[in-house]
Amino acid sequence: MPATAHEKDSIEHTLTELMLANRILAREDIIDDFGHVSVRNPINPRRYFISRSRSPANVTRDDILEYTLEGELVGNDPRRPYAERHIHGAIYKDRPDVNAVTHHHARAVIPFTMVDISLRPMFHMSSVIGRELGYWDSQAEFGDTNMLVDSMEMGHSLSRALGQNRVALLRGHGCVCAAANIKAVIRVSIGLRDNAELILSTRQHGEIKPLTDGEIDKAGAMMLGDMALARAWDYWVARAGFAGL
Length: 245
Prior knowledge:
It is built from 7 helices and 7 strands, in the order H-E-E-E-H-E-E-H-H-E-E-H-H-H. The chain is α+β, with helices and mostly antiparallel strands. Strands 3-2-1-4-7-6-5 form a 7-stranded mixed β-sheet, sandwiched between helices. The mean pLDDT is 96.
């Protein structure tokens, strides 16, 4: 059945937000030359959108491709896909509540993948990462690899480690962030990086007192609310050079 005008508008809005998300995450130094962000198809939840294999700072609307949750391209575009697209498909398949995913290698986060130091939120704007973080070590199931999550088997293994959390750390690699929408997953990704930087700098001065469970829940709900996300989105879009969109 052909898509309705409303469905077409919904898809176009989603694709525009995904293009902007790539540019925002690059501008905010979350995603560098590698890493990626995706969004579930709002009309067909068994598919998702993600750019072709390209540096996120340069992603345009034309770069965005559609995949099934098994990582199969919809259509016949010959351009190279991200090898780690299976991260996204596996999480969408396992978590119906998740509609946007990032995978990045923010350098401040990497030490926490290799040492036993808690990343529990220490300030209110990082509360969005949640009380607990998942942890995935590819060695446990797959031994020595090239460290990429480049198969559905590995994607589902990582998804199991993520569990019902918003963040999972990948040993010696980076992290994944998952949320209900694009704006929220950017907020989580930035909050994770900022929290890591603050913990690394604050530990020099003494013991860190993290937020309580109640503070994390209440502050997190506020920061992921419509008002806070709309205000943050305006700021991010302007900083990425797209003010007015």
